């Protein structure tokens, strides 16, 4: 057992084995580099194996009494605010002798912006420089969620990349859930008259959604033959992504792992989402947990664990790591 402690890296999971393989490869690299002094396990919230509980149980079996749980996700939407804390809280409640600390999402970070810059410039290096940056439009594509704070982060990333890299214009679109979608966003952008468009998916790993983004790009490119379309790579295991994970771990001990509570729809009345204030912090992922990837077999898991939460009567169930008066009594995790 490592004397420095235990780290549980919590992945989203995917039906696509490429995404699962890339996540696992990143975890293995982290074990050899930034997390070499820790015992490290990982698991997935949806579809893939091992599931999160399996990873927590392995660290428990090693004898660890303190576990750091790191979300392997870019922004804090439903998975980071509800589903992951639900899993962490269930394990913590059933193991009161284990101190489980929950980190925050990767969020908007200078290191991730540096990784994004490299992916975009790698794509531009494959074409000639006959078209200037100021004549080039950057389309930043986000995942898309039902959380307006997470969706708005894509705008901020896009603006910082535009100003930092000198593009003439930056637009945003999403792969799903919210709008504009990639094909609609690109067609609208064509009205602006730019000669070159760089499509950059602000994603961690491969998968069905990346395929969809590139397919929509090809469809629109076929409609506008006089415009050059370049498909940039996603973040993947860029060294700055790994460094950001390590930074999130360090923040847990310093108490700096706070999320953006001011614009959280579960804490504040955000326009259009007023009814979400105080929504119970429960998971919505159990029907797809561990059911398998498209290339594998489905495996039913029944660990016999309950997934309900009792919040001791306070009016709000979300604890994002701040010292709010209505913080969890039942959550041993910090952050949400």
From TrEMBL:
Biased composition, class Basic residues, residue ranges: 306-315
Alphabetized UniProt keyword annotations: Lyase, Metal-binding
Record keyword Nuclease present: no
A UniProt-annotated Pfam family: CbiX
InterPro entries: CbiX-like, Sirohydro_Cobaltochel/CbiX
Domain of life: Bacteria
One function term, GO molecular function aspect: lyase activity
Record region (Disordered): 291-336
Positions with biased composition (Basic and acidic residues): 296-305, 316-336
Name of the protein: Sirohydrochlorin chelatase
Species whose genome carries this gene: Thalassospira lucentensis
């Amino acid at each position: 057992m490592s004397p420095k402690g235990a780290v549980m890296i919590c992945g989203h999971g995917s039906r696509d084995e490429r995404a699962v393989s890339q996540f696992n490869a990143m975890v293995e690299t982290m074990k050899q580099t930034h997390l070499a002094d820790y015992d490290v396990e990982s698991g997935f919230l949806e579809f893939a194996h091992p599931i999160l509980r399996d990873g927590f149980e392995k660290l428990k079996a090693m004898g660890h009494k303190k576990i750091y749980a790191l979300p392997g996700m870019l922004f804090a939407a439903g998975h980071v605010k509800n589903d992951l804390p639900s899993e962490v809280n269930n394990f913590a409640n059933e193991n009161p002798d284990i101190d489980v600390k929950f980190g925050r999402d990767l969020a908007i970070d200078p290191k991730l912006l540096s990784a994004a810059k490299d992916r975009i410039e790698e794509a531009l290096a494959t074409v000639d420089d006959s078209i200037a940056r100021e004549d080039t439009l950057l389309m930043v594509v986000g995942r898309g969620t039902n959380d307006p704070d997470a969706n708005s982060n894509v705008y901020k990333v896009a603006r910082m990349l535009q100003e930092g890299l000198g593009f003439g214009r930056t637009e945003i679109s999403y792969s799903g859930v919210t709008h504009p979608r990639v094909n609609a966003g690109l067609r609208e952008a064509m009205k602006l008259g730019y000669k070159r468009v760089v499509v950059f998916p602000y994603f961690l790993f491969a998968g069905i959604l990346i395929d969809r983004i590139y397919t929509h790009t090809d469809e629109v490119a076929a409609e506008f033959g006089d415009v050059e379309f370049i498909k940039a790579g996603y973040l993947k295991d860029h060294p700055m992504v790994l460094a950001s994970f390590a930074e999130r771990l360090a923040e847990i001990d310093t108490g700096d792992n706070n999320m953006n509570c001011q614009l959280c729809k579960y804490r504040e009345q955000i326009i259009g989402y007023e009814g979400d204030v105080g929504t119970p912090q429960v998971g919505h992922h159990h029907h797809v947990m561990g059911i398998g990837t498209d290339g594998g077999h489905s495996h039913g898991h029944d660990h016999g664990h309950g997934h309900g939460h009792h919040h001791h009567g306070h009016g709000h169930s979300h604890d994002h790591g701040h010292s709010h008066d209505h913080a969890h009594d039942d959550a041993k995790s910090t952050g949400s």
